[in-house]
Amino acid sequence: MKKQSSIYSSIIGVACVTLFLLLIPFVAMHFTNEVNWSSLDFIIMGALIFGTGISFTWLVRRSPNLMYRIAISIMVVATFLMIWANLAVGLIGSGPNIGNLMYIAVAIVVIVGSLLSQFKAAGMERAMYVTVLTLVVLATIALLAGMQHHGSSVIEILGVNGFFAGLFLVSAALFHYAAKNALNRTSL
């Protein structure tokens, strides 16, 4: 019963944080014309924030150690930031273009890799390396396709992809450390 109560508390907590964060643009819309969200914007961001919060809460609760929790945190935050930035302004150019749509593949790799690894540290490490490889492939495709001529420079494309690849690499390194610690504990 205590575990079920804790789960409901987490859901309510994440819902409250989501509503609070959505209040920021809602209030800002009343004071400036710079913020102009539609109902769909609120729905999409609400789902993204709530989904990220629930995922984070669930993954951290089942975490065996501190390094794993930090790795999960970095992975979840990096994925959230990538999706949010892509929806808000676009990672290559602006708006819905093929360059920005390519980043759906990164989110799919993170989700599928995590599920296939059953959230075990060694598997999560491999999933993060595949995520980094996906970002490298997307940057290469963007540059070979000449997307740097449509709103983003070469430096911006490399910078954005490098930033997110760096976050996922740090996450992979921490998962490696967590897997190594788990292996050492079982061999004692």
TrEMBL record:
Keyword Membrane: yes
TM ranges: 7-28, 40-60, 72-92, 98-116, 128-145, 157-179
Highest taxon listed in the record's lineage: Bacteria
UniProt keyword annotations, A-Z: Membrane, Transmembrane, Transmembrane helix
Designated name of the protein: Uncharacterized protein
Species: Olivibacter jilunii
Lineage, broadest ranks: Bacteria, Pseudomonadati, Bacteroidota, Sphingobacteriia, Sphingobacteriales
